[in-house]
Structures are given as structure tokens and as C-alpha cells.
Amino acid sequence: MSRIGRLPIQVPAGVDVTIDGQTVTVKGPKGTLTHVVAAPIEIGKGEDGTLVVTRPNDERQSKALHGLSRTLVANMITGVTAGYRKSLEISGVGYRVTAKGSNMEFALGYSHPILVEAPEGISFVVDSPTKFHVDGTDKQKVGEVAAKIRKLRKPDPYKAKGVKYAGEVIRRKVGKSGK
Known about the structure:
It is a single chain. By secondary structure, the protein is of the alpha+beta class. The protein has helices spanning about 60-80, 140-150; strands spanning about 15-20, 25-30, 30-35, 40-45, 50-55, 85-90, 95-100, 105, 115, 120-130, 130-135, 160-165. The strands form four sheets. Strands 10-11-6-12 form a four-stranded antiparallel sheet, with helices on one face. The chain has a three-stranded antiparallel sheet with strand order 1-2-3, covered by helices on one side. It has a three-stranded antiparallel sheet with strand order 7-8-9, with no helix packed on it. Strand 4 (about 40-45) and strand 5 form a beta hairpin. It starts with 15 loop residues before the first strand and ends in a 14-residue tail after the last strand.
């Protein structure tokens, strides 16, 4: 049995979980998330208000989906209660970010400013011209939006200029030596 998959999922007070066949809907104080659990995996309500994820057999595919399905549902519950946040930093001369309503505008050394619109369920928080956060209830969507923003100007390996995650360590390269 999967070490992660066999653990019951605790449902905190204020969170409503609805199971309709393979579809799991989680409603909480921060919003609603829906996920369709993969076919061989079954999810049900256990005793004392927990959720239990089971698999019908020990086939390789079922084993792989067991822990994944449990973690995805647990992430949904965490998302609607606490939410997720990805922090990013900008380093480089003249590189900055400004808030434009619910969107953000970046100056990243290109000939034009770059406007990033917030997708549904995602919000941006700008702390300073070089630090900002991506917030949301869906862990996958928060990470995806943060990765797209980082991709606008990846950190340069020589001077570490660009957009990077907070706490990310950039391996620096040595420039070529002059004669």
C-alpha cells in the first residue's frame, strides 16, 4: 500500500467536501475547487469526518495514482483554507515590477514593458519594486503562473540578473578571463 495514499485526509471545520462518483468538490472560506479522480482510484468518507482514498488492486498504474490522488485532494483542502503563495524577486539594474490594478507590469530590460494579467483565481501582491507574490487556492495554477513570470527573464548565470523565486540559489559562472 502506498505510504502516502493510505493516510486519511483530515477535513477541517468550515470545509465542505462533496463526492459525486469520481468528482471531488471542496468548498471552503477561500473558494471552491473541483477535481476528477483518476478511474481506478476510489475516494470515500471515513469515520470521524476524514476522507479515505483506496485502490482496487496492486497494478502498477493503480499504485502510481493512489498517492497522487490523495495528495491532490489534500492540496485542494489546504488551498481553500490557507491558500498558496509563491514569492519571487527581481534583481538587476532598472528591473522592477509595478501593480496595475489586478495585473502587474514588468520592466525587465526589454524595449517595452511587459503586462501580466492575473488569471481567474490568482492574485498578485507587490511588496516593493523588486519583490512580489503570486497567491491563489489552486497549488498547480499558482506554480504555473509563477513559472511563466520567471520565464519572462530567467536569472542570468553570470550576473544573476532576472526574475527568480525567493530563496532560489543561482549557480554563478565565471566570466572569461582577459589577457
